[in-house]
Amino acid sequence: MLEPKSCPHCLGWGLLFMRCCGGCSSFARPGSDGRCTGCTGYGPLRKGYCRLCWCQARTDAAATGAQAEPLLPTLRHHQLFFAHMAPLWERVPRPRQPKYERRGRPRRPDPPPASPPGGWLQPALFAACRDFTHIDPDQHTGPDNPWLAWARHTAHRLGEVRGWPRKVRFGVDRALIILMSRHVGGDVVRYSELHPALRPRRLNMELTIEVLDHIGVFLDDRTPSFDTWLECKLDGMTPGIRRDVEHWARLLHDGGPRSKPREEATVWNYLNRIRPVLIDWSSRYDHLREVTRDDVLTQLDALHGSQRQHTLIVLRSLFGRAKKNGTIFKNPTGRIRVGQREHGIIQPLAPEHIDNSVAAVTKPADRLILALAAVHAARSGAIRRLQLDDLDIGNRKLTIDGRARRLDDLTLHVAREWLEFRRRRWPNTANPHLLINKITALGTGPVSQVSLTAPLRGQAATLEQLRVDRQLEEALTHGPDALHLAEVFGLDEKTAIRYANSAKALLERPLESDPATSPRTHGSTP
Question: How much is the pTM?
Answer without folding.
Answer: 0.69
